[in-house]
Every structure is written in C-alpha cells, then in structure tokens.
Design brief:
Layout (H helix, E strand, L loop, with lengths): L2 H17 L18 H10 L10 H11 L4 E4 L6 H8 L5 E6 L3 H8 L7 H18 L2 E4 L2 H11 L5 E2 L23 E5 L4 H13 L7 E6 L2 H7 L8 E4 L5 H6 L2 E4 L9 H8 L3 E4 L1 H4 L11 E2 L3 H13 L7 H10 L2 H12 L1
Parallel strand pairs: 1-2, 2-3, 3-4, 5-6, 5-8, 6-7, 8-9, 9-10
Helix pairs in contact: 1-15, 3-4, 4-6, 5-6, 11-14
Length: 349
C-alpha cells in the first residue's frame, strides 16, 4: 500500500478507536477503480475542470450529502475532495466537517505531474480550488506538520486546528537477533514507488555517492522496474526489486536506509516505515520533514554527497547494531496508530 493509502487507513482506524467502529461509515470515492467503464473514466475527466478531482462526480457528491445528514461529523480524508465541504455547507449541513490535508495538494501535484502532461494546469487548478475550499468550509482542518500549516496560512489564510503526523499500524513481527551488527560492507536500501521525487533522489545518490563508498545497494518499490529500464547503464549493477509483495524482508536485511529525497510536500511514509522497523537512517531534510528525531542517534541528516559518504564510511569503520532501538522508540512514541489516536480524542472531545 502506498503512502496515501496508509495514511487514510491510519485516519480510519483512529476515528473508529475514538468514536466507535459502529459509528463510522466509510465512503470510497475510488472503490470501483479496477472495474471502471470507459464511460465512468471519461466522466472523471469531464468534471475535473469544475472542481471534482478525478474520480469524484456530482452524482457521488449528492450521495455523500444524503448520507451526511445522518451523522454528526463528515471526515474528508483528502483535501482534493473538499468540493464536498463546499456543497455540504451550501446544503446547510449542521454537523462538523473535518478535513485532513495529507499534503498541500496543489504543491504535491505540481511536483508529481510532468511538465509536458496534457491538462496539467487543469489538475493543479482543481487541487488548488479544493485546498482552498477545505480551508473555507471545514470546521476543523488537520495538517501533517508545521511546514504544511505555514503553507496553508500563506496560501489560504487558515491555520490548522491540529497537527497529526503520519502514523502506521505496527508491522514489526520479526524475532531476529536485535544484537546483530552492521557489516563492514553495509547493506544499504532505498524504498519508494516510481515517482519523480523518489526517482530523482535515487539517481542523484547513484551518481554522486555510490561510486565513493563500498556498499551493497538495493532499490525496492512499486514500479521501479521502469526506473531501471530508463537508466539501464547507470543501474546495471544495482539490484532493483519492483512490486515486492512485502517490504519487511528487505528492511530486516538492511544495515542502513538511504532516503535521498529533495522535493515534495507532507511527510514521507518511507521515513515512518524505517523508524517502525528500527533502522539506521541516512536522510535529507525533506525526508525528515515533520519528524521528531534525535540526530546522530535515531537518524543522520545528510544533504550533500560528502555528508552521505562520511556517514556510510563511518558505519563501515565503526559497526553498530543493525536494529536501532532509538529509531524504534521514536516510532512507538510519536508515529504509531496508538500515538495519533490520542490526538484525535483531544480534537473531538
């Protein structure tokens, strides 16, 4: 499951824990994506210029509004769908509307969609309108971190009512030896789906850092076979695993997580996963954005080739435990489902 899906699941679980599972009814905007007819596909495109982000339609919004009057809260899990908030207010909905900003979506889509993609500006404009409607019509706005909150203030003159970070259901079930030391030739791992900021960071690392260190480097992520096809000469000697059924084995065998991300919005789920699995993390400012880490203990901040090289060589010269208990504790205290449930209870009390 990619970052957005994991974030949505985190919110659903937290709401169920706070309000009672029997009181929460999910509505899936994209529940029928795999069965979509050509007509529904074209319908999604047609309505995008009018503020209905791809997949949402006036028919679906009317259905959501009809359901909403049976509930005290409507939780909009992506600000891309905040035309729902606008229409609810126009229909005099008296309950509370809560919008969760996984990103500032206009910023995210600007980074995600290639410059030559047709209708690029239509998508960005649709995202920007929905981001704005979320700020105008939501009773509560939730942002991931202070950076996104500052962007909301700058763009839409609205501050978040709560900052609730990325969180994950704890997936660490391994009973491997927690005292195992990192290797003199460290196993380094980068994870992430085929996506421009991930691709750019990994290729940057391969060009600028990898030639200067002696490591076993692997790349694992959805669709990453495409990255290797596009960069066959550069990546010919690097193991690239695409669409792995589980990332857990790759986390477990790695000595160091390499997270060279330089652009984007929100918080990086791969950083949360790395903390969850108790890994030693070398990461850029962007990859660590929004995370409360102890530098040089639970993670090492690296933004230049020289910084990555120095840290990797230090691991090679001075082995330490492959399992980083400080990173693991950071996850449990701040980014587990249980940690964020407390924040929802405070918001909705």
């Amino acid at each position: 499951m990619e970052g957005g899906g994991q974030g949505a699941l985190k919110n659903y679980n937290a709401l169920c824990a706070t309000l009672g599972a029997e009181s929460v009814t999910p509505y899936y905007v994209h529940d029928d994506d795999k069965k979509r007819s050509l007509l529904s596909y074209l319908e999604g495109i047609v309505y995008t210029p009018f503020g209905y982000y791809f997949g949402l339609t006036p028919r679906k919004v009317r259905k959501i509004i009809a359901m909403a009057f049976q509930y005290d809260y409507v939780f909009i899990d992506r600000s891309l769908f905040c035309i729902i908030a606008k229409k609810l207010k126009e229909c005099n909905y008296r309950g509370k509307i809560i919008t969760y900003y996984h990103n500032i979506e206009a910023v995210y889509i600007d980074a995600k969609v290639g410059k030559n993609i047709p209708f690029r500006n239509v998508l960005i404009n649709c995202a920007d309108r929905n981001d704005r409607w979320g700020c105008l019509y939501s009773d509560y706005v939730i942002a991931l971190n202070e950076r996104d909150n500052t962007e909301l203030q700058k763009r839409y003159a609205r501050s978040a009512d709560a900052l609730i970070p990325v969180a994950l259901r704890d997936q660490l079930t391994s009973h491997s030896d927690k005292s195992m030391m990192t290797a003199k030739r460290p196993v380094c791992l980068s994870i992430g789906a085929y996506f421009a900021p991930n691709n750019e960071g990994i290729l940057w690392f391969v060009k600028n850092v990898l030639p200067h260190v002696d490591v076993d480097y692997k790349i694992v992520g959805k669709g990453m076979a495409q990255l290797k096809r596009e960069n066959q000469e550069l990546l010919k000697d690097i193991e690239v695993v695409s669409d792995a059924p589980s990332l857990a084995p790759y986390f477990e065998e790695s000595d160091i997580m390499i997270l060279p991300i330089f652009s984007g919005s929100g918080m990086k789920v791969k950083t949360c996963e790395s903390l969850m699995f108790g890994k030693n993390i070398l990461a850029t400012d962007e990859a660590l954005e929004g995370y409360r880490i102890k530098e040089g203990v639970s993670a090492w901040r690296c933004n230049t080739p020289e910084e990555f090289i120095a840290c990797i060589n230090d691991f090679a010269k001075h082995p330490r435990t492959r399992f980083n208990m400080h990173a693991r504790q950071c996850f449990l205290d701040n980014y587990s489902n249980e940690a964020v449930e407390k924040k929802y209870k405070e918001l909705l009390s």
